[in-house]
Design goal:
By secondary structure, the protein is an alpha+beta fold. It is 30% helix and 24% strand. The chain has four helices and four strands, in the order H-E-E-E-H-H-H-E. The chain has a four-stranded mixed beta sheet, with helices on one face. The longest helix is centred in the C-terminal third of the chain and has 12 residues. The protein is globular.
């Protein structure tokens, strides 16, 4: 809802989508908008992968985040997915904001 509100409030031309394959692991939310930069419109993107714990007792550990394994919270997996997403045709001519 926050990205929808952002697009409407700033009166931008925008698209909001979910499960966009080109975003790889960051497919939970893709917010695309145009921004006038250096005399021309340029596409900007915010891509998001949301994570949550399944129970209140569940802990996310250092090992979960910094392991090379393909875990739900592993940064290596998401770093690699981000690098792949940047090279997809959808994002190639735009800016993925961090």
């Amino acid at each position: 809802m926050l990205y929808l509100q952002r697009g409407l409030k700033k009166n931008r031309n925008f698209e909001l989508g979910t499960e966009i394959g080109e975003a790889h692991k960051f497919d939970d939310l893709v917010f695309k908008y145009t921004k006038f930069v250096d005399g021309k419109d340029k596409n900007h993107f915010i891509i998001l992968q949301s994570k949550h714990k399944t129970t209140l007792d569940a802990k996310i550990t250092y090992k979960d985040i910094f392991t090379d394994a393909n875990t739900n919270f592993g940064l290596v997996k998401y770093y690699n997915a981000f690098q792949k997403a940047k090279n997809e045709k959808l994002f190639r001519d735009g800016v993925i904001e961090h």
